[in-house]
Hints:
With about 120 residues, the protein is mainly alpha-helical. It has four helices and two strands. The chain has helices spanning about 20-30, 55-65, 80-95, 105-115, and strands at about 5, 75. The chain has a two-stranded parallel ribbon. Helix 3 crosses helix 4 (about 105-115).
Amino acid sequence: PPPRPFIGVPPCIPNFTGREDELYRLDAILMHDKPAVVTQAVGRVAVQGMGGVGKTSLAVEYAYRYRNLYAGVCWCPAETRAGLMTALAGLGAALGNSASEEVDAEKAAKAALHRLAGP
Length: 119
């Protein structure tokens, strides 16, 4: 099989420990420990909390630990709308989406999301 994309995910944190309950809850919400099939919807989850409590570290650990349950992983920073649109447009390019060549990042981002959602 072709390699599964793993795009933009920050480096693995070698000294990550604990938080097994949180990782299990993320997995239960998103995948229920079963690989997704094309027609199966993947759950959505938001990790929230005060700055510095390890939200990003938790998400990075989840991405590495459970990456084989997904067809691919793309890390899209969403601190700003422009950053999110740029990351999604880059995802479109990685998927071979011709619309990713759009000058307008928002149009390219929407095309990438449409490609992910469609057949």
